[in-house]
Amino acid sequence: MLLFGPPIGLFVNALMFVPMTVFMFILPYTGHGRDTGMSGRAPRLTFDDALKLAREASSNRTILSMVLLGGATSFLVGNAFQAQMPEFAHDFGHDKQDLSYSMLLGANAAGAVIGGLLLEGRGWLQANARNVAICSMLWCCAIAGFASTNSYPLAIALLFFAGLLNLAFLSMAQTLVQLMAPPQLRGRLIGLFNMSNNGLKAFSGVTGGVIGGLIGVHSSLAISAMILLAVTAGLFAFVIPGRGQGEFS
Questions:
Q1: Average pLDDT over residues 219-236
Q2: Where would you tag: which of 100, 101, 214, 238 has the fewest CB atoms within 10 A of its CB?
């Protein structure tokens, strides 16, 4: 954006996805052709299949909670606040196309990159429901803090840690689904998690955008984050040790 301006910069950004899109067209559907039989294709996950899988997953509290957490995160907060960043930047006094505005846009992504390096390179956090809940609740607090603060440096720091925490709890949630799913359902349950986590982001434009237009983007984002905090606490209570996690039949 700084080099080419907003129109060309957005076009260049879109072109960055072309190689991956082409690669996905030539890759077998699941990426694991050896598991799909002679046809080389896996059966596609339909909406009815997703509902059936959700009912089957309900017998395992951890898997069900991780799928619900991914969906609630996308539905309530998602990435809508990134689209609202010009308004946030304006309120911080950095609405022009300068380095300060770019830092505000890139802080969340930078946190995700650092978080990925720390998680993969150091293995600091073990994938379990407790760590997922803690990271998710801290993420909610970081997002709410960003929405509430008037300090630009604090906003940058909170966005950075929000990116780190978001990657941490969502990657651990998917790992739990993968590890706890029975082999014959593993691929489909991971698909269900990803559909919940990615598909419901479309509705974050309602919770963040439409409601933000009524009460302001700061208030709508803070309220959404606090609701998600309560949902996360409830899901964590659902899978605490001693309550029983269920087994697939």
A1: 90
A2: 214
182, two tokens: 């029975």
Q: Where are the alpha helices (DSSP H) in 58-210?
A: 61-76, 80-83, 85-92, 99-122, 129-148, 152-180, 186-199, 204
The amino acid sitting at 181 is A
Q: Which of 125, 12, 109 is nearest to 4 (CA)?
A: 12
Q: Which residue has the tokens 């966005």?
A: 159
How far is it, in rounded angstroms, from Cα 136 to Cα 72?
A: 11
Amino acid identity at 7: P
Give the separation between CA 91 and CA 81, rounded to whole angstroms: 14
- C-alpha distances (whole Å) from 165 to each of 133, 139, 142, 160 are 11, 6, 9, 9
- Give me the half-sphere count of Cα atoms (radius 13 Å) on the Cβ side of residue 169: 30
DSSP conformational letter for 39? T
Nearest-5° Cα angle at 190, 141 to 187: 170
177 CB neighbour count, 10 Å cutoff: 26
Tokens of residue 193, six digits: 């998690």
Q: What local confidence, expressed as pLDDT, does residue 46 receive?
A: 62
Residues 6 or more apart in contact with residue 15 via CB below 8 angstroms? none
**Reported pTM:** 0.75
**Contact (CB, 8 A) for 190 and 178:** yes
Alpha-carbon distances of 10 from 45, 79, 125, 229, rounded to whole Å: 32, 17, 35, 33
